[in-house]
Design goal:
The complex is a heterodimer of chains A (989) and B (254).
Chain A (H helix, E strand, L loop, with lengths): L1 H7 L2 H22 L17 H12 L5 E7 L9 H15 L4 E5 L5 E5 L6 E5 L8 H12 L15 E8 L5 H15 L5 E5 L1 H35 L2 H24 L11 H25 L7 H32 L7 H22 L1 H8 L10 H16 L1 H19 L17 H13 L3 E8 L5 H15 L4 E5 L1 H12 L9 H11 L15 E8 L4 H17 L3 E6 L3 H21 L6 H12 L7 H12 L17 H11 L8 H16 L6 H34 L8 H12 L6 E5 L7 E3 L1 E6 H35 L2 H25 L7 H21 L6 H28 L7 H28 L10 H4 L3 H4 L17 H7 L7
Helix pairs in contact in A: 1-10, 2-8, 2-12, 4-6, 6-7, 7-8, 7-9, 7-30, 8-9, 8-11, 9-10, 9-11, 9-30, 10-11, 10-27, 10-29, 13-14, 13-30, 13-31, 14-28, 16-20, 17-18, 20-26, 21-25, 22-23, 22-25, 23-24, 24-25, 25-26, 27-28, 27-29, 28-29, 28-31, 29-30, 29-31, 30-31
Chain B lengths: L1 H25 L2 H12 L6 E11 L7 E10 L2 E8 L7 E4 L4 E6 L4 E7 L13 H5 L7 E9 L2 E8 L9 E7 L5 E7 L5 E13 L3 E11 L5 E12 L10 H6 L1
Antiparallel strand pairs in B: 1-2, 1-13, 2-3, 3-4, 4-5, 5-6, 7-8, 8-9, 9-10, 10-11, 11-12, 12-13
Classes of the chains: A alpha+beta (989), B alpha+beta (254).
């Protein structure tokens, strides 16, 4: 410091310093303008957490999992089914489909629908709404058609027809924030006024968090800085000096951001709070130097020209206050650098560059500020600190005079706070990120009310998704998960395959052969959303479990339930024949499960008696097949265009095709006999019925065309009739609207009884096996990982900050005991604030986990300054001197930082509100804790050896309170007496 | 009075002309002639046979999907037989019109008649939709405007014909001056947003100036430049394909 003081006393060196700083500031400003923004909220996930790593892998394998949801509330039941709403929805869907960054858009308007063509056969595919209804009758018909589609209701339209939902699938590599913003703009072009749009899903939520924090920071930072400047000006009464201090802080910020740009590091969300933090904590350093300089310049030691007096004052300033300022700055920088031990990269970057910013500001305060002072004839005005005299001094004296009582009260508060700290919850959920009433919260409630929720658990399964047995197990897992409380629906690839099979074959079920499954996979691969359910190699699948709650505790319970289920679920299976006893039992179990889900889907809930009756009926043999139904279906098929054979039309003798159908059905199902034998007999029947030779092409055409459909018709009819019998025995009846659908679903479930093989859970020993290993993930799991991380980071960073801070204190004061005395107020503050969080129900999250280090960094300064100015014959006079010299300064600084951070609570961003409010409070608590704890623990008159020039300082230099800060400055001649009285040695320590 | 009535009549006539004639007024003679020239090209051959590789590249996937297929074309009908990969091998699609097709599903060993109104739907995630593949005559769907020329190419802007069910709002096409074969097509929506770009390159020709590109590439700008490339491996023209090949019977019989 002596060397630095000597150098800066030289005019040429001062010029050089100013020029270098200005040059660097210019370069850094240029660089800072190039810095990019990083709005990836996923970067905040702790990278070394196994659940997070798993999630990131899922995001990569299943295409980002980015789906933007647009909910539209028409405001009244069936409001969706109006011409105006549907025409706007059509235009909106078309517009979104042409938007860059979207891989697909699905809404009620364009969701694919397929219906059987009874006349010509086959299926007709098209959008669910092909043409807008022109009158009320058409609207009613459309409403009935839409509400009869169980995969549409609750996914694209609410069951009461009030709300609609649009799914926008982001293309690989799309930036979620601008894409979400574009979607919002387009939606608002078509729906404004009566129809209320809601925006949910990852892209909108992350955009909201990013935008609100950025907007709040942009809007509130100037106010926060203004509040701090006003407090400084009121205290300091020196525009130029305040501006100089702020200028050096601004340069520190610019240097830090410029450095980020130079290293290609983008600005992240947390870093946007850096200016406020640096202005709050960094501006004090320059002000300390200025205050001391004014003091020295006013009452110079020795004579000489104005230039010489300035040089002497600068040397005296740096030697006296320099080490304290450096120590205070270093503790703050170290506290921020302790973020480097955190497991979240954005937090590490924040800690590193904010710490660098503090160091830069500190460096400028001991180089640039003195250099400017050396070159300009600045003289500060002096004021008297009323706070110190009238508030702090009586308080400190009271503590010293009632040491026991003060000690008991403090210990009681600390113990109480210590107990309350254990109540601080480290649970992170969406409420940590957005407040009730905010846009994402409203969207969340809308989605829960009309579409069964907005929270998803992701079940990741590894297994061969081409294998029907594995897909059947996946369906079973979904059926079971669907029964857990708060699970409103489960989406998975086996269900999509089953739907595709419904289009191809009839029953909604996973087909029995690998070839069929592979064909269906190929068909559905282009569907938007499918790649979020299965990987391209079909070795992994993702099950999306929709939950109807967003409550953190309930989500945790659901998660526990799912994990409990997973624990009991081995993931290894033996393939057994359906003919074996165990196989048959398992098939029955699976079929029963499916049937119950089918009934549930059709709105039927069984009572206990019905369940028992159903089980009894289930165990009984299937009824004898009514072949007439099979004949009818085969005849209808042969009359469609799907039958490749040319068949004669009905004649006077009747319909030869009906006769042929009867004959073919009488042969039984082709799959139940030896193929060649069935074909031989079929050829005879076909030739006879069509009156052609057995080797005619027409016979072969019929044979080729009917074998597969007839096999399917036999199986379907058996299942349908069996299902009907079981339902009848159980006394289950459907409503008229659900009858057709319900019976079809039950028949599809009953088809499972015909599967030749089944999987049995357990280790495979010797036989053939399959595996389907599951693991749970999703937002609730990530929240849990974040909670773990917040706690871990809190402990790690606190330890990483505390050790060096205490070491700095020990080095500065050359005593372990004094170091601990200096740090004690900060420990008390930490305990009180965290205890307060426990009592107030404020949870530990990403923001509040930063708090401890900010409190430590900024709060310990008070202890440093207070103890550094503690100079007297005994404890009482030492305390008095400390209050006079630094008491007002500490209060002002606490008030400044408090105001600066308090402004942040006025925004919308929940994380800023928490951090701003708690830091503001913490600064005031830290100041009070300093005035309480240090006098309580300090028994000596002085705790620091004086610098040589301090020893030679005149009494009136030391005694007035202008050592440190703005407000500590006292008027010439004022209070000298009081201070001299307080320092019996005549003002010298 | 008469003058007033005449003026009113004239105004009505002008309005009617404006209303009904608006569509055609957009097109110009030169553009229509050039589009007719483009539409003539598919008719130069009686039938064609191709072996293609369709490469579908997703920016997120390291390995593109390669589909091998044989394609037979005759009289506006098209039969596609997938030969690789294993999932789709043996699948056949017979398209008899823009909306109607028959699919033979090997796994199911049966034909399904599919009437699709999903013209924008794609198969296997390709950037070519059904309409892109089935549109052989643009004149039925679009009105063309000549927009200029550049070296050896003419430029056309084709706008959806009123009442047509064309998928795109407009297509900007660059064609070869010498034979009207398209080199580049930029597909736009109703708002004029650029959705996709198709390039057809390395044309080779056979007798009667029947030319085909060796490579076709469609880039979807909406899907962050996701692309699909069709690479021709084999090509035969006028090999005397029978119409029986394009029947359900043939589809069923393999």
């Amino acid at each position: 410091m002596k060397v630095l003081a000597s150098l800066l006393s030289q005019r040429r060196v001062a010029w050089a310093v100013v020029l270098v700083v200005l040059l660097m500031a210019g370069t850094s400003t240029f660089l800072a303008m190039q810095v990019t923004q990083d709005d990836n909220l996923l970067a905040f996930l702790p990278g070394d957490d196994p659940d997070v790593r798993h999630f990131q892998k899922l995001a990569a394998s299943f295409g980002g999992l980015e789906v933007a949801l647009v909910g539209l509330d028409s405001g009244s039941a069936n409001g969706v089914f109006t011409h105006d709403f549907l025409s706007r929805l059509k235009k909106l869907t078309a517009d979104l489909m042409g938007m860059r960054g979207l891989d697909g858009v699905t809404s009620l308007d364009n969701v694919a629908d397929f219906v059987a063509n009874e006349e010509k056969g086959g299926i007709v595919t098209g959008p669910l709404i092909r043409a807008l209804p022109r009158n009320d009758a058409e609207l009613q018909a459309l409403r009935s058609r839409v509400l009869a589609r169980d995969h549409v209701v609750g996914n694209f339209v609410s069951s009461d027809g009030r709300a609609a939902l649009i799914y926008c699938f982001l293309a690989q590599g799309s930036d979620p924030r601008p894409t979400a913003s574009r979607i919002r703009r387009v939606v608002e072009q078509y729906f404004d006024g009566r129809v209320k749009p809601y925006y949910g899903g990852g892209p909108f939520i992350s955009s909201y968090i990013f935008e609100t924090i950025r907007r709040d920071m942009r809007q509130l930072t100037p106010w926060a800085v203004l509040a701090m400047v006003i407090v400084m000006l009121i205290s300091f009464r020196d525009w130029v000096g305040t501006c100089l201090a702020l200028l050096s802080t601004s340069f520190g910020i610019v240097f830090s951001i410029g450095l980020m740009a130079a290293f290609g590091e983008p600005l992240n969300l947390v870093l946007s709070s850096m200016p406020v933090i640096l202005f709050a904590v960094g501006s004090a350093y320059g002000i300390h130097i200025l205050a001391r300089y004014y003091d020295c310049a006013r009452d110079p030691v020795g004579g000489g020209s104005s230039e010489e007096r300035r040089a002497t004052a600068i040397a005296a300033t740096l030697q006296s206050v320099g080490p304290t300022v450096l120590a205070a700055g270093l503790t703050t920088a170290v506290s921020l650098l302790s973020f480097l031990v955190m497991d979240q990269r954005p937090m590490r970057v924040f800690g590193l560059f904010t710490g660098i910013g503090v160091l830069m500001t500190l460096l400028l305060s001991v180089t640039f500020v003195p250099a400017v002072l050396r070159l300009t004839p600045l003289r500060g005005k002096v004021t008297k600190s009323r706070i110190a005299d009238h508030l702090v001094l009586p308080f400190v004296r009271g503590i010293q005079e009632h040491r026991l009582l003060a000690g008991i009260v403090l210990v009681t508060m600390v113990v109480a706070a210590g107990v309350a700290v254990t109540r601080v919850e480290n649970r992170i959920d969406s409420t940590n990120l957005f407040a009730p009433g905010s846009a994402p919260h409203r969207a969340d409630r809308f989605l829960s009310r009309h579409f069964g929720g907005s929270q998803f658990l992701l079940m990741h399964f590894k297994g061969d998704m081409n294998d029907p047995l594995v897909l059947r197990e996946l369906t079973s897992a979904a059926d079971r998960l669907g029964q857990l409380p708060h699970v409103s629906s489960v989406m998975h690839i086996a269900d999509i395959i089953a739907r595709a099979n419904e289009a191809m074959e009839g029953p909604r079920r996973v087909p029995d052969s690998v070839a069929k499954v592979r064909t269906l996979h190929a068909f559905i691969s282009a569907e938007a959303g499918v790649r979020q359910l299965v990987t391209a190699d079909r070795e992994e699948a993702l099950m999306q479990v929709k939950l109807d709650t967003s409550d953190a505790r309930e989500l945790e319970r659901v998660l526990e339930g799912v994990e409990g289920w997973l624990k009991a679920y081995a993931g290894s299976f033996r393939v057994v024949s359906a003919e074996s006893v165990a196989g048959r039992a398992r098939l029955r179990e699976l079929t029963r499960e499916r049937m119950l889900v089918a009934l549930q889907g059709a709105g039927v809930t069984l009572d206990k008696a019905q369940t028992v009756a159903l089980d009894v009926a289930f165990a009984q043999a299937a009824p004898t097949l009514d072949e007439q139904a099979v004949e009818g279906r085969l005849w209808r098929f042969m009359r469609t265009e799907e039958c490749a054979a040319r068949l004669p039309p009905p004649d006077d003798e009747g319909d030869p095709v009906l006769a042929l159908a009867r004959r073919l059905v009488s042969l039984g199902s082709p799959s139940e006999q030896v193929a060649e034998a069935w074909q031989e007999r079929a050829v005879v029947h076909i030739a006879k019925t069509l009156k052609v030779a057995p080797d005619a092409e027409q016979v072969e055409d019929v044979l080729l065309s009917v074998q597969a459909p007839l096999t399917q018709i036999f199986a379907d009819e058996r299942a349908r009739q069996h299902g009907h019998a079981v339902l009848k025995a159980a006394g289950v009846t459907f409503t008229s609207t659900q009858k057709a659908r319900g019976e079809k679903l039950v028949a599809a479930a009953m088809l499972d009884l015909t599967r030749p093989q089944v999987l049995l859970q357990g280790e495979v020993v010797g036989g053939v096996g399959r595996s389907l290993h599951g693991r749970v993930n999703g937002l609730p799991v990530l929240h849990r990982a974040l909670s773990r991380s917040a706690l871990k980071n809190q402990i790690r960073s606190l330890v990483a900050a505390l050790v060096p801070v205490i070491l700095i204190m020990i080095v500065l004061f050359r005593s372990l005991r004094v170091g601990l005395i200096v740090a004690a107020p900060t420990f008390v503050t930490l305990l009180l604030i965290y205890g307060g969080m426990g009592i107030g129900g404020v949870r530990l999250d990403l923001g509040t986990a930063m708090l401890a280090c900010i409190i430590l960094g900024a709060g310990v300064d008070y202890g440093v300054h207070f103890v550094a100015t503690w100079r007297g014959e005994d404890a009482k006079s030492g305390a008095c001197a400390a209050v006079k010299r630094s008491g007002g300064a500490i209060w002002t600084n606490a008030l400044t930082v408090c105001l600066g951070f308090f402004v942040l609570t006025m925004g919308e961003a929940r994380p800023l509100q928490n951090v701003g409010g708690l830091t503001a409070l913490a600064m005031l608590v830290a100041a009070v804790a300093t005035f309480w704890t240090v006098p309580l623990l300090a028994r000596r008159g002085s705790y620091r050896e004086l610098a040589p020039n301090e020893v030679n300082e005149p009494v009136n230099e030391l005694v007035p309170l202008n050592d440190l800060v703005p407000l500590g400055v006292v008027g010439e001649g004022q209070d000298k007496e009081a201070v001299v009285q307080a320092t019996p040695s005549g003002g010298r320590e | 009075m008469n003058i007033k009535r005449n003026m009113r009549s004239s105004a009505v006539v002008l309005l009617l002309v404006g209303f009904f004639g608006a569509g055609d007024a957009w097109a110009d003679k030169r553009g229509e002639e050039l589009m007719a020239c483009v539409d003539k090209n598919p008719a130069r051959s009686k039938d064609q046979y191709f072996v293609y590789d369709m490469i579908i590249a997703d920016p997120g996937q390291s390995k593109p999907l390669v589909l091998g297929m044989k394609v037979w074309i005759k009289d506006g009908m098209r039969l596609v037989h997938f030969i690789s990969p294993a999932d789709v091998k043996g699948m056949k699609i017979l398209s008899r019109s823009r909306a109607q097709m028959y699919v033979y599903l090997k796994g199911y060993n049966r034909i399904r008649r599919i009437t699709s109104h999903m013209k924008r739907q794609t198969l296997f995630g390709a950037d070519y939709n059904y309409d892109d593949q089935m549109t052989l005559r643009y004149g039925d769907l679009y009105l063309a405007d000549y927009t200029g020329e550049e070296g050896e190419i003419y430029k056309l802007k084709m706008k959806r014909r009123p009442g047509s069910d064309a998928v795109y709002g407009a297509i900007e096409m660059k064609i070869r001056k010498k034979d009207c074969y398209p080199l580049e097509m930029r597909y736009l929506d109703e708002k004029g947003r650029h959705l996709k770009t198709e390039t057809r390159s390395s044309y080779t020709c056979q007798a009667n100036n029947i030319c085909e590109p060796t490579e076709l590439k469609m880039v979807s700008h909406v899907r962050n430049n996701h692309w699909t490339k069709i690479v021709r491996k084999e090509w035969k023209v006028n090999s005397g394909l029978s119409k029986r090949l394009f029947t359900r019977r043939a589809l069923q019989r393999n």
